[in-house]
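Q: What residues go here?
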């Protein structure tokens, strides 16, 4: 049966028999704007040679559009209450497969290797709950998965931070990670009225196109990300103070490195460009 998952009344009728109530703890807000998901799929750019790993299918609104366009879709869902619902809404699609579990605990590379092999490329698509946006994106980036693009719908403020230019006030540690691994862009905004229940904030859809080859080369990648995390953890503090407090590096050593780069000891993390953050890491962790 082809359910109209963007119709409020039909959606309620579908969920009621299962005693489903929206979970605030899981950040559940389902899309009821019929124009959003087709636009996401179109801008993701998939065809029958493309496989998609989806995070958080919900009732399958976005999933259905992905199945119509892609060669195969594997969706990861944590909420077991939605498993029988997805069996109903996506039962007609033989290129759909559900993986039950927590995306933060599953072996994503194994899932891709075993369930999405044989396709020209694999892309990730998701409507992420706001509370796990950064952790999920960091996991997708740092796991070095065999994927080419990540398209996610996130809170508007999070989108601006994820796609912020390094050395701007909006940039943070996650902005640096996104820049390190790929090229990001905000595709379009989605108003709060497009969801059920309606959240208190608007959303945006962003795309991260992963670098085929590393754009930035650091001497010690692990230490680089530790430095970035520490540098932006205490934004109001100078780099000298934040790095010495959290990483145990001597203030004189940090000051000397900054001076070699042409900065005084009063500089803050948000003032450095991506290249300068890489340079600072190389000077401190040779």
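A:
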């Amino acid at each position: 049966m082809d359910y109209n998952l963007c119709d409020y009344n039909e959606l309620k009728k579908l969920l009621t028999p299962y005693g489903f109530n929206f979970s605030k703890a899981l950040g559940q807000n389902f899309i009821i704007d019929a124009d959003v998901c087709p636009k996401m799929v179109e801008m993701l750019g998939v065809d029958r040679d493309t496989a998609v790993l989806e995070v958080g299918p919900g009732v399958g609104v976005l999933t259905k559009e992905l199945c119509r366009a892609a060669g195969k879709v594997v969706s990861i869902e944590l909420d077991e209450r939605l498993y029988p619902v997805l069996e109903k809404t996506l039962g007609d699609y033989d290129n759909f497969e559900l993986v039950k579990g927590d995306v933060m605990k599953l072996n994503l590379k194994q899932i891709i290797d075993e369930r999405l092999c044989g396709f020209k490329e694999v892309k990730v698509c998701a409507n992420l709950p706001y509370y796990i946006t950064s952790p999920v994106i960091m996991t997708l980036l740092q796991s070095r998965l065999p994927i080419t693009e990540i398209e996610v719908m996130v809170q508007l403020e999070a989108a601006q931070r994820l796609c912020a230019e390094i050395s701007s006030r909006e940039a943070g540690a996650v902005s640096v990670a996104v820049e390190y691994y790929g090229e990001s862009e905000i595709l379009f905004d989605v108003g709060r009225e497009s969801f059920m229940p309606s959240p208190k904030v608007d959303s945006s859809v962003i795309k991260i196109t992963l670098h085929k080859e590393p754009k930035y080369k650091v001497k010690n990648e692990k230490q680089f990300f530790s430095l970035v995390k520490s540098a932006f953890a205490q934004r109001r503090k100078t780099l000298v103070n934040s790095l010495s407090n959290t990483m145990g590096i001597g203030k004189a050593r940090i000051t000397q490195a900054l001076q070699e780069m042409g900065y005084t000891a009063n500089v803050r993390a948000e003032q450095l460009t991506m290249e300068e953050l890489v340079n600072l890491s190389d000077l401190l962790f040779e």
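A: Context that may help when evaluating the design: The mean pLDDT is 93. The longest helix spans residues 221-233.
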